[in-house]
Each structure stands twice: as structure tokens, then as C-alpha cells.
Amino acid sequence: MFSDNKKGKDQGQTDFSRNQNKISEGTKIVGDVVSEGGFRVEGTIEGTFKTTGKVVVGKSGFIQGTLECSDADFEGKFSGNLVISGTLSLKPTAHIEGEVSVGKLAVEPGATFNASCVMKGGIKSLGNKQDGQQKQQGKSA
Asked: What is the DSSP track for the chain?
């Protein structure tokens, strides 16, 4: 009943992708935050914020400074340097200012995005795709 043996989990290893940290409304953190887990931010962070997990910023959340993470969903505000290796999703109440570097960007109507943006990732040439299709058709004919 109270056994230390858990099915499906290795002892001594932590699944950081399942760890969820919460910064509640009314909480203000000034300084550096470094983590390997995900975050839900309803309060305020001023400084450098780095995590390998996903960051969700609620309507009352505000981050000022630098944010580096894998993915981010914004309903709140951000001002500074934003570096997202995966997808940045902006909900209608989001307000983003500063410099942004993302893998993918999704902006819903109503979101405010006043930033310089660089999208990282492979560039797909439409010309090469069509050339490849023509070569395949030529081989089968």
C-alpha cells in the first residue's frame, strides 16, 4: 500500500517535463531563475529566466528581461529579449515588446506584437520541391 516501488518510474531519475512550477499572482521575483521544469507565471519576473521546459504566462503574468525556453504560451505581458527554441503562441490578451527569436510563431487576433522577430529553422525552397516532383515523374514515365 505504501511501497517505495513505483510502477513505470525509475528510482533516482526525475521527469523534468512533468514538473510544473507556479509563480502566483501577487508574487514578484527579481533576479535570475534557472530550471529544467515548466512554469506557469501569474505574477511578475524581472531579470533572466531560463528553463528547458514550457512557460505559460497567464493574463496577470508579466516578464521583463530575458526569457529562454522550449515553448511558450502568452496571455499576459512580456518586455525584453525572448528566445524560444520551439513554438511561441500568443493569445488575444498577449502583449509582447522587444526582440524575439522563435522556431514557430502563432498569433491569435487581438494579440499585440511590437517586436523585431527572427524565425529560426530550415528554409524550404518551393522551387526545389517542384523540381523534385518533375524528376520523379520523369523516372516513372
From this structure: ---S--TT--TT---GGG-EEEE-TT-EEES-EEESSEEEESSEEEEEEEESSEEEE-TT-EEEEEEEESEEEESSEEEEEEEESSEEEE-TT-EEEEEEEESEEEE-TT-EEEEEEEE-SPPPPHHHHHHHHHHHHHHH-
pLDDT, tens only, 97-117: 999 999 999 999 999 999 999
CA triplet 21, 116, 29: central angle to 5 degrees?
Answer: 25
**Residues 45-61: tens digit of each pLDDT:** 999 999 999 999 999 99
Q: Print the SS3 string covering 71-97.
A: EEEECCEEEEEEEECCEEEECCCCEEE
Note the Cα 89 to chain centre separation in Å.
Answer: 8
pLDDT at 18: 62
Sorted by where each begins, the domain ranges of the chain are 18-120
φ, ψ of residue 50 to 5 degrees: the values are -125, 130
